[in-house]
Amino acid sequence: MRLRPSGLLSAALGGRSHLGALLLTTLGCASVDGSALPHQARSYIVGVDISGSRTPTELAESKQLLNRLIDNLEVGDRLTLVEMYQGGKLPARQWSDSTRAPRTPGKVGPSELRRLDDFKAIAKMQAQILFDTTRAKEIRNTDIFGTLVRAADYSRPAPNTRRTLLLLSDMINETPDVTMTTRSDIPTDAWIKHLSAAQRIPQLRDVCVVVAGADVSSARGAAIRDFWEKYFAATGARLDPANYRNMIANAAEVSCGG
Fold first, then answer.
1. Are 129 and 121 in contact (CB under 8 A)?
2. What is the pLDDT of residue 13?
3. What backbone torsions phi and psi does residue 244 show, to the nearest 5 degrees?
4. Which of 119, 161, 188, 240 has its CA 20 to 30 A from that of 96?
């Protein structure tokens, strides 16, 4: 396993579409000619928000979801963890690593499974560090926009890789430029268009975005959700309404489907 801490199927079937699709459905992991199809790796970028606006219950739910996501990782997957705030002069903590893809496509051996177990154990230790609530008093602001810039750097397109950005946050940005404490403070559509025209919006094209921890019941919460839906549309990411939630219990739901 490669440990590189950073701070902290589709198949084209051509004219045989009907027969090929039937065989592919029946065989599952084998192609029409009998060879193994390449495994589609997954890359998860997770933003962790432990700011004072989040309750202990919300933090516990976020930590539990992240641990369950780690449990579901497979050989060849990548996980990146990034703090969603800046504290004093300290940079946000971050960690990124992956397990090697199987040497033989479609075949995972005992040694690869052992490396995967080691990877999961290390990932959970890194998650524990990010959920250190004793650091909450050091928080100076919640910089979601800055987190998205870093997420864009980590989510560069890679061959045969499905990319997902999971934000464990209430999605309330609090920086000198943008503070979402009241509805009137939430940026307008014109603000988004201005940033987009100036090329100041991170590029997250085709990245699946999932939010867990947001307020989805109050008028302010709905206004914040509306803003983020438009902002992520400008980034090129996919944020389905069903993926903007207060709580997610099943890690398998951290996905855009398809």
1. no
2. 31
3. -110, 100
4. 240
Cβ contacts of residue 155 below 8 Å, gap of 6+? Answer: 43, 45, 163, 165, 204, 207
For the stretch 174-188, pLDDT in tens is 988 899 989 999 999
Contact 46, 148 (CB under 8 A): no
CA 243 to chain CA centroid, nearest Å: 12
- Which of the residues in the chain have pLDDT under 70? 1-39, 87-91, 136-138, 140, 258
pLDDT at res. 19: 34
Asked if residue 170 lies in contact with residue 58, where contact means CB atoms within 8 angstroms, the answer is yes
Residues forming a β-bridge with 73: none
Among residues 255, 249, 256, 257, the alpha carbon closest in space to that of 68 is found at 249
Are 92 and 150 a contacting pair, CB within 8 Å?
A: yes
Query: 133 phi and psi, to 5 degrees?
Result: -70, -15
Residue with tokens 């404490």: 181
